[in-house]
Amino acid sequence: VQSDTAQNYTIYYSASGPGIDQDPKGLFYIEKETGNIFATRAVDREQYPSFQIICFATTPDGYSPEVPLLHTIRIEDDNDNAPYFTQELFEFSVPENSKPGVVVGRLTAEDRDEPYTLHTTLKYRIVSQDPPVTPAFSVHGDTGVIAVLLPQLDRELVPRYTMLVEVRDMAGQPYGLCTTGTVVIRIEDTNDNAPSFKQIQYETRVEENRVNVEILRISVLDLDEPGSPGSRAVYEIIRGNDDQSFEITTDANTNEGILCVVKGLDYENAKQRILVISVNNEAPYMLAPHSQQVSQSTSTVTVNVQDVDEGPVFKPCFLRIDVKECEDIGANIGRYVAEDPETGNSEGICYRIAPGQCNWISIDEKSGEVRTIKVLDRDVGEMRQGQCNITVLAIDRNGRTGTGTIQVVIQPGNKNFPRITKTDYIMCRDRKPICLTAQDDDETPYSTPFVYRITDRSLASSWKITRHNDNSVYLSPKGDIPFGIYDIPVSVTDNGGKVGEHYVKVNYCDCVTPTECGEGPRARDAGNVTLGIWAILAMILGSLLLLLILITICGCCGSGVMHRQVTDDCANHNLIISNTEAPGEEVMDHNVIPLQSTCDQGGYGIKTGDQQTFEMVKGRGQTLESVTGGGQQTLGSVKETGGGGGGQAVMDTCRYSYSEWHNFTHPRLGEKVHLCRQDEEQKHSEDYLLTYNYEGKGSLAGSVGCCSDQHEEEALDFLDQLEPKFRTLAETCIKR
């Protein structure tokens, strides 16, 4: 440090590294006279990589003419630190038979010297290998990656490798610092060794009929790692066990095969059994490089069956017997016998049915014949399930017992007739087809499909049956038939051939809906007509209405004799206003022609007899226009002037012709209609003329328009058949 004005130099502050740590002991000092800076002791770069100091220059009297100067001192690195591994022991594993170049693991090391310098440039190498055989691995010098070098790693030969490795700085130069470490590489097992039996033949024995008993243990040899999937054995019986009487399993502790009998063996059937057993591993076999495929190891086991005195045996042990439904009691349905295994025959064996079972059958004690003891019906009680299992006992002379099972199955029979569920129908005039549906309590194949047929030839010509589905058909007439009730015989045949006969009653009614013909069909012969309830009710109501009108007429016009005058009140009561928008008025006009007392005077007359009607008549030498004035005539007065004591009408010779009646009434009726269409101000009133609906058909008088076109004489005969309700109108018209 040099200053032109100052003579004394001092260090105020000393710092090192990024944190600028104070140095209380003073790593540096400065000569006051010269300004030279010296280190007081050795400095470690790894501890203090750099320092910062502030220098002051002062005069002898303490004045500082210069600005303080900041100095940074960097410590240069020296290769004084050897590299070191991050782990004391590196452990890796690799499968055996791995190919060269397969990465095993990676070594990692560090150096405390300055980074990115030659002092921290590291190199790796393998110093030694244990066992000292052909080098099996290599290490990359720069990255430290260990890879497989040997083309064939065999775990069975060398299960693990231990290597001494070195890391050196200065890029591996001999003068560089170095450190060594240990690497252990374990060779993982693969199933490259097939298991093999220690013996290729075994022999054992077992008593007949014994089950779930161990009879033999089999050992194998496997060079793979014990306890691994490549060494655990899996045994299999590949021949001689078609009936599955034997079973072999693996002992997890010893890896041995345990051979057991799971079904009882029969000495009489086979005195010796020969089994062929193979063995494999849990892991699939992997062929090692440069080796040949080995064949599967097998071993032969001879099992000798020892004879034991045993009880009778049923053959088969389970017998199914199908019985037709409703079979007769005592019917022979089968035979179930057992044999003595020692003799091979059934001599001396008796049979019984174990107690507490369904009592459907019995078995003959000596012959084993099976017979029914009741009628088997699937619709009764416990037989609804249709089957029952029965245990049968067979007992030999020595008292030894064998058991067997008989399954009695009741086969459905064709015992029920098909029946039509509904036989009463109503058919209206639209002749909508009737759907007939049948039911059969039998099961398939004795139920559907059904076949329907009309058995009566005459009815079959007018009615037809159309198929709907397996259960139903449509019944409909072939053409036009008269209304009435038809009893149609219909036969229904099920799939088993059983026929059910039924009568279908069809009430072919003149109706729109079936309710119009009542709750059901009425009993009547085809072609005859019977009044329904509504027709009878209508007749009763009509009679009551007619009686009411007669009573009203009698009450208004007298005590039953027609001598009284027809008054205005009587006319008003008998004319019933219907659908009139404006009130009517009393029509009193001189143009209304009154009745005269006799035919000579001109007027109305009455033809008497069993039936009273009104006729228009004319007098001798008089016309309708000449008849005016005169006293008011009543219907009774006209009757009295009919002439003679017998009351016979003499008006046949004074009856007006149709043309005269038309010429007289037409202009007057037109005038009346014209006047009716005017109100008080002589304006036409449309409210007084109303248009009515069509009155219907069936009138004996025919159309009014037709009457206007008739020009022949004597065309008013229809007036003789006027109904009683028109008499009131006639009486009203003759009043003055």
From TrEMBL:
Cellular localization per UniProt: Cell junction, Desmosome; Cell membrane
Keyword Secreted: no
Cellular component GO terms held in the UniProt record: cell surface; desmosome; plasma membrane
Bilayer topology term: Single-pass type I membrane protein
UniProt xrefs under CDD domains: Cadherin_repeat
SUPFAM superfamilies registered for this protein in UniProt: Cadherin-like
Ranges where the record places region Disordered: 625-644
PANTHER family reported for this sequence: DESMOCOLLIN-2 (PTHR24025:SF0), DESMOGLEIN FAMILY MEMBER (PTHR24025)
A Pfam family assignment: Cadherin
Name of the protein this chain belongs to: DSC1 protein
GO biological process annotation, one example: homophilic cell adhesion via plasma membrane adhesion molecules
Originating species: Turnix velox (Little buttonquail)
Annotated TM spans: 531-554
Main localization category: other
Keyword annotations of the record: Calcium, Cell adhesion, Cell junction, Cell membrane, Glycoprotein, Membrane, Metal-binding, Repeat, Transmembrane, Transmembrane helix
Domain Cadherin residue range list: 1-85, 86-197, 198-318, 315-420
Role summary: A component of desmosome cell-cell junctions which are required for positive regulation of cellular adhesion. Involved in the interaction of plaque proteins and intermediate filaments mediating cell-cell adhesion.
A Gene Ontology molecular function term of the record: calcium ion binding
